[in-house]
């Protein structure tokens, strides 16, 4: 994890060092959530790219292994809820892995494939060889929200292994009654869930957005240039 208080104070220090401006805790929390989601989603694109490149044998510089380590933080599982005729996925589902009925793995099918195999008694789904069809996709990047499972007598005991969405980071605070200043409240805060190696990247990307809020193009350009350089260094 990356400490939300450290990130916020670093961002404020850089912004205020030359009296450039200030962002409130609420602004920071919104920016932090946006940045965390962007970095998180980028993992999957980077992994796709790296899988096309021959791996190296280094224990600590293997990029596929490092990306797997970052994504593994969000790997989890949960039960599907049956709301006939559909099963619904956990609300924090981001990417779906394997579905199991008991100890049997379900095969994913497209609807036209299901229609074909269901015509023959030899190929139609059974409790020994169950199948599922995903439904309820809201957008190209959104995870499906529900699924149909066949045979229809299956109404429970279905588990999904999936990548969950990261929890939104929150810099919790109280307000000083005398000065009106913000005081960090750890008990009401939520840390960034990204791998600790992402701290610099988080700070730079928040600074880039903060420059837009305070209307300082120099901050935007400098932070964007440093983010780009970080990406080049990681991929070169």
What does this protein structure show overall?
The protein is an alpha+beta fold and 236 residues long. The protein has two domains: 4-40 and 169-235, no CATH class; 75-164, no CATH class. Helices cover 39% and strands 20% of the residues. The strands form three sheets. It has a five-stranded mixed beta sheet, with no helix packed on it. The chain has a four-stranded antiparallel beta sheet with strand order 1-9-4-5, with no helix packed on it. A hairpin with a 2-residue loop joins strand 2 (81-83) and strand 3 (86-88). Helix 1 (4-17) crosses helix 5 and helix 2 crosses helix 5. The protein is elongated. The two termini are 26 Å apart. The mean pLDDT is 86.
What layout of secondary structure does this protein have?
Blueprint: H1 4-17, H2 25-50, H3 63-72, E1 75-79, E2 81-83, E3 86-88, E4 93-101, E5 104-105, E6 107-108, H4 111-117, E7 131-135, E8 146-150, E9 158-164, E10 173-175, E11 182-184, H5 199-213, H6 217-235
Parallel strand pairs: 6-7
Antiparallel strand pairs: 1-9, 2-3, 3-8, 4-5, 4-9, 7-8, 10-11
């Amino acid at each position: 994890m990356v400490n939300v208080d450290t990130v916020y104070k670093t961002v404020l220090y850089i912004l205020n060092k030359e009296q450039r401006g200030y962002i409130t805790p609420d602004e920071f929390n919104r920016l932090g959530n946006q940045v965390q989601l962007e970095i998180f989603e980028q993992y999957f694109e980077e992994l796709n790219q790296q899988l096309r490149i021959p791996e190296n044998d280094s224990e600590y510089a293997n990029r596929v292994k490092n990306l797997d380590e970052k994504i593994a933080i969000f790997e989890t599982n949960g039960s599907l809820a049956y709301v006939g005729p559909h099963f619904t996925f956990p609300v924090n589902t981001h990417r779906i892995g394997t579905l199991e009925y008991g100890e049997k793995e379900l095969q994913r099918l497209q609807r036209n494939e299901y229609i074909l195999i269901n015509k023959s008694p030899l190929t139609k789904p059974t409790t020994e060889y169950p199948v599922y069809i995903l439904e309820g996709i809201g957008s190209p990047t959104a995870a499906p929200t529900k699924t149909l499972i066949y045979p229809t007598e299956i109404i429970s005991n279905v588990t999904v292994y999936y990548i969950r969405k990261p929890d939104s980071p929150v810099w919790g605070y109280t307000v000083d009654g005398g000065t009106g200043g913000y005081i960090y409240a750890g008990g009401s805060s939520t840390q960034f869930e990204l791998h600790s190696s992402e701290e610099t990247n988080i700070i730079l990307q928040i600074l880039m957005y903060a420059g837009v809020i305070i209307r300082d193009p120099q901050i935007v350009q400098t932070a964007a240039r440093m983010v780009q350089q970080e990406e080049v260094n990681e991929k070169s």
